[in-house]
Write a structure and sequence with these properties.
Elements (H helix, E strand, L loop, with lengths): L1 E6 L2 E7 L2 E6 L9 E5 L5 E5 L7 E6 L5 E5 L4 E5 L5 E6 L7 E7 L5 E6 L10 E6 L5 E8 L2 E6 L5 E6 L4 E7 L5 E9 L5 E7 L4 E5 L4 E5 L5 E6 L3 E8 L5 E7 L11 E7 L4 E2 L3
Antiparallel strand pairs: 1-24, 2-3, 3-4, 4-5, 6-7, 7-8, 8-9, 10-11, 11-12, 12-13, 14-15, 15-16, 16-17, 18-19, 18-25, 19-20, 20-21, 22-23, 23-24
Length: 280
C-alpha cells in the first residue's frame, strides 16, 4: 500500500504513539526540509516546518518526551518542545569530520549519531560514530566507520547495530553500562548490497534499505537473507510499526541527480510476519 506520495527525500522513520514520524530532506538548502508525521490512514501533519542547520535526518525522543532531531549541515542535535520550539541540545562540530546523518536514541536519552562523507560519494572517507550522553557530553565512539547509517539498539540495551553502507555490512558493538562501545564486530556481511536505514524485529532479524539495490531486505546475524521487498526506485530507510508492529514502512526516492518529478519521495507499507522491537 502506498501511504504517502509527493515527498522529496524521506528519511529517519520512527513509529511512535500511533504515527510514523520522518524527515523529508530537500537537498542543497541547509535550512530546508521538514519533520512530518503520518498515521496509518495517510493523514499527514507537519511537526517542524524548518530545521536550522538542517536539513533534518535522524529522529529520536528524550525521556522527557522532547523530540531530538539531527541537523545535518550544522552538525548539531536540536530538541523540539511540544509547541515546536527548537533549542540546541548538542554541538558536534568539533567531533564530526563531515555532516551528520542518522541516529538512534536509547531509553535513557543517550544518542548514537553517524557522520558521513556525502560529498565524497561514491568513494567516501571513513567517518565517526558519536555518542551524546544523557548529560550532554559527547565523544567519538569509533573514528573509522565506513559511512555509518541506520542504527538500532536491542531491547536489552546490550547491543548497538549500525549499517555501514560502504562497508556492505551491519556492524555490532557491545554497549557498556555507561553507554560506551566495545567489541566491534561484523554482525552480517551483505556483499553487493549497501545498507542504509535499518530496523529490528522481535525474532532478532534486521530489515535494511538497500540504497543501490532498490529493495528492502531482511537478514539475520551471520548474513542469511530471509525476505526481500522490491521497490521501483531507490530505497533509503525503513521501520516497523503499525498497531501490531507488523507493518514495514519503506521510504523511497531518487538520490539527487535528474528526476522525473520534483517530489519523487514515497512511503510504502507492507504486512510482515514478525513485529518490530527496540527503541522508537
Amino acid at each position: 500500500m502506498r501511504l504517502v506520495e509527493e515527498l522529496t527525500f524521506p528519511e529517519g522513520p520512527r513509529w511512535r504513539n500511533g504515527r510514523l514520524w520522518f524527515s523529508d530532506i530537500v537537498w542543497g538548502r541547509s535550512d530546508d526540509g521538514r519533520v512530518l508525521a503520518v498515521d496509518e490512514h495517510g493523514n499527514l501533519d507537519v511537526v517542524l516546518q524548518r530545521v536550522p542547520g538542517g536539513p533534518p535526518s535522524g529522529l529520536g525522543w528524550l525521556p522527557d518526551g522532547r523530540l531530538l532531531v539531527v541537523a545535518t549541515a550544522g552538525r548539531t542535535l536540536l530538541a523540539a518542545d511540544a509547541d515546536g520550539t527548537l533549542t540546541e541540545y548538542a554541538d558536534l562540530t568539533g567531533l564530526a569530520s563531515f555532516q551528520l546523518n542518522d541516529m538512534v536514541v536509547d531509553t535513557s536519552g543517550r544518542a548514537y549519531v553517524g557522520s558521513c562523507d556525502v560529498p565524497g560519494l561514491p568513494n567516501p572517507a571513513s567517518s565517526e560514530l558519536i555518542i551524546v550522553h544523557s548529560d550532554g557530553r559527547a565523544e567519538v565512539a569509533d573514528p573509522a566507520m565506513r559511512f555509518p547509517n541506520g542504527s538500532v539498539i536491542t531491547p536489552d540495551g546490550a547491543t548497538l547495530i549500525v549499517a555501514e553502507t560502504h562497508g556492505q555490512c551491519l556492524t555490532a558493538f557491545t554497549v557498556a553500562d555507561d553507554g560506551t562501545l566495545a567489541d566491534k564486530r561484523v554482525w552480517a556481511s551483505v556483499p553487493g548490497q549497501f545498507p542504509d536505514g535499518i530496523c529490528l524485529d522481535q525474532a532478532g532479524g534486521v530489515w535494511f534499505a538497500d540504497a543501490r539495490g532498490q529493495a528492502c531486505v531482511r537478514v539475520t546475524e551471520g548474513g542469511r537473507v530471509t525476505n526481500r521487498v522490491e521497490t521501483d526506485q531507490g530505497c533509503y530507510a525503513c521501520t516497523l510499526g503499525g498497531r501490531d508492529g507488523r507493518t514495514l514502512f519503506v521510504l523511497t526516492s531518487v538520490f539527487r541527480g535528474r528526476r522525473e518529478s520534483p517530489r519523487p519521495g514515497r512511503i510504502e507499507a507492507y504486512a510482515v510476519d514478525v513485529p518490530g522491537t527496540g527503541p522508537p
